[in-house]
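Lecture 7 notes: from sequence to structure.
We start with the chain below.
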Amino acid sequence: MATKTTAPATTQERSRAARTRRLIIHIGLIGFGLIMLYPLLWMLASSFKPTAEIFRAPGLIPETFTPGNYTEGWTALQFPFHHYLLNSAIVVAGAIVGNLIGCSMAAYAFARLEFRGKRLFFAVMLATIMLPIHVVIVPQYILFAEIGWINTFLPLIVPKLLATDGFFIFLMVQFIRGLPKDLDEAARIDGCGHVRIFFRIILPLSLPALATTAIFTFIWTWNDFFSQLIFLTSPDMYTVPVALRTFVDSSSQTSWGPLFAMSVIALGPVFGFFLAGQKYLVKGIATTGIK
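Predicted structure tokens for the same chain:
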């Protein structure tokens, strides 16, 4: 009888201890998540504060609610803020199309074709991933200045069509290598060449890798400040990151409230595009070379 009364009590104690551990873990994860999100929440809260209150009262709840930062920031610069959003959209759209076309074709060549020096070229391509942009930006600037492309969107779009992003080539190569070669051979028996195999078989099956490339290209290009600052010199060509920089004036008072308000608006397209393609992003990463 003693054994029968002790066993349920032990089971209840174990269940209670497991619930306590889960509760502690959840509280720890929520606390860690709030710490990670605090800068974003602080920027969102600061976008509704007067500029004088932002650094005097660093809490998350505004003492004076000021939604006017959004209307003021929208028209504070030389052009309305939608002008810079449109410029960024043009650059991002061109970069996505360029990467999808250029990188997918280069990846198919590395994954399916046999040619002399293939391993050497693939190694060189991988080595380009390790090069920081600061190493190549000077020769790129000289080249584009010689052909008259400075202060145009061409330096930010055309190189994408030439498959200059080695990371995306590598990602697609790993994905294409995972596709059965039997599909290629069956198509070749039916009379298909490499062009039809690429467009009719490889590209449709590579949708997760293409979506992953598009999402990363969108985020990295939309948030790119350095390259766009170097190649775009006149205000009418500025993109969102460069336009946000113009809110900060070292010689006079900086409009922090409108700056944070426009920064919140600039984050909208990134979050929207990421949420729209999240399932493809997870599937693409799980089934490609990032494993």
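Points to note: Residues 2-46 form the longest helix (45 residues). The CA atoms of residues 245 and 251 lie 14 Å apart.
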